[in-house]
Amino acid sequence: MTLNDRRQQILTAALATLREHGSAGFTQARVAARAGVRQSHLTYYFGTRLALLQAVARLAVDGQLAAIDSVFAGPSRTSVAKALANVTVRHESTRVLMALVQAADQEPSLRALCRELAEGIAERTEGFVKRLNVLATREHAHLLHALSVGLAVVDLATQRPNSKRRAAAMLDTTFSLMTSKARS
Amino acid sequence: MTLNDRRQQILTAALATLREHGSAGFTQARVAARAGVRQSHLTYYFGTRLALLQAVARLAVDGQLAAIDSVFAGPSRTSVAKALANVTVRHESTRVLMALVQAADQEPSLRALCRELAEGIAERTEGFVKRLNVLATREHAHLLHALSVGLAVVDLATQRPNSKRRAAAMLDTTFSLMTSKARS
DNA sequence: GTCTATAGATAGATAGAC
DNA sequence: GTCTATCTATCTATAGAC
């Protein structure tokens, strides 16, 4: 199917553009150039910029959830912290995340997707935390999610060295705190 | 001084615009309309859009640090968690934060300001955490900072009810975890 | 020195050719 | 049905009037 091929081709280029240039750099011209098509083709295949963004966001969310899935298979608490930091504290992922957040702020239709992502991550996290500590709650999972988001955003803003190492350390510390104490 | 008055007037309008509309809605036309001046005046008084954004960011960072200052004066752990959530988990603040992060990602000159903000908050947080637990480290303070950033971003993205209450609960939980256990 | 009118660039969307 | 050329809107920056 040529139509779906083209759509896929544009989607891939769009996601790559978002990862590299973030929300502000996500222009139809740039995506089109990357996909090797004319700008007006984006309109043809997706209608509006928002529709394209929604499709890209869908792709990104699925990808991120799939990446998270493998994180919690790690052998130890520390290795999981490291894997989680590696998946979440990535400038490329953070740019996509921020674009999604911004778009959701102004476009309610995207909020459901954001909730799906947040819930999906919390769900996957909860299982792991429960293995650490049977008294762990969904709140702990949401807390970890928020923490990883914050670490990612702060890192993009400050761009300091060793950010992944430090993020992994903080996640591990938090796991550790949750392990040693259960508190309602 | 008329010049400084005008600058101030424009700055105020610019900050308000950023708080309401976020990074994408931060256009010279909108700021000018709000300030009651012509768009070209922004160029006259600030040179470029980036320079204006830098000035606004400076203002916003100072304001946020000042707001944080009063947070840790709270009487109890729980009241501090609540106050912190009230200051950080605000859509208006989060929009400014996100705009700053995005700008810093592409404009290295703004990263110093982001680091200043992050360090400033961590510093102020550290004192409080140390009062909770003498073994607390700067890492705990950075962890709390990242957590509050993440809570703010997640809330802007999902816009769920009771977000401030839940954020306060998570911060309080984290304080509690840090209190009951010190771990290097 | 302050402000206006306008230019130049780029965004996204449309109408119509093939 | 697929693609091209074009159009309008909007953004930021400049040149020059007062």
What does this structure look like?
The structure is a homodimer of 184-residue chains. In chain A, α1 packs across α2 (28-35), α1 packs across α4 and α6 packs across α8 (138-158). The longest helix of chain A has 23 residues, at 49-71. The first copy, chain A, is built from nine helices and no strands. The termini of chain A are far apart. By secondary structure, the first copy, chain A, is mainly alpha-helical. Chain A is elongated and about 60 Å long. The relative contact order of chain A is 0.11. The model of chain A has no long low-confidence stretch (mean pLDDT 95). The first copy, chain A, folds into two domains: 1-47, Arc Repressor Mutant, subunit A; 56-180, Tetracycline Repressor, domain 2 (Orthogonal Bundle). Chains A and B meet through α6, α7, α8 and α9 of A and α6, α7, α8 and α9 of B. The structure holds a DNA duplex (18 and 18 nucleotides).
Report, as a whole number of angstroms, the end-to-end distance of chain A: 54 Å
- Helical percentage of chain A: over 70%
Q: H/E order of the elements of chain A?
A: HHHHHHHHH
Instruction: Using the 3D structure, state the CATH architecture of the largest domain in chain A.
Output: Orthogonal Bundle
Round the mean pLDDT of chain A to the nearest integer and report it: 95
**CATH class category name of the largest domain in chain A:** Mainly Alpha
How would you name the CATH homologous superfamily of the largest domain in chain A? Tetracycline Repressor, domain 2
**Count of extended strands of chain A:** 0
Segments of chain A where pLDDT lies below 50 for 5+ residues?
none
Main sheet specs of chain A = none
How big a fraction of the residues of chain A is strand? under 5%
Query: Hey, which two chains have the biggest interface?
Result: A-B, 47 and 47 residues
Task: Please state the oligomeric state of the protein chains shown.
Answer: homodimer
Number of helices of chain A: 9
Q: Report Rg of chain A.
A: 18 Å
Number of discrete domains of chain A: 2
Q: Enter the CATH topology name of the largest domain in chain A.
A: Tetracycline Repressor, domain 2
Q: What structural class do helix, strand and pairing data of chain A support?
A: mainly alpha
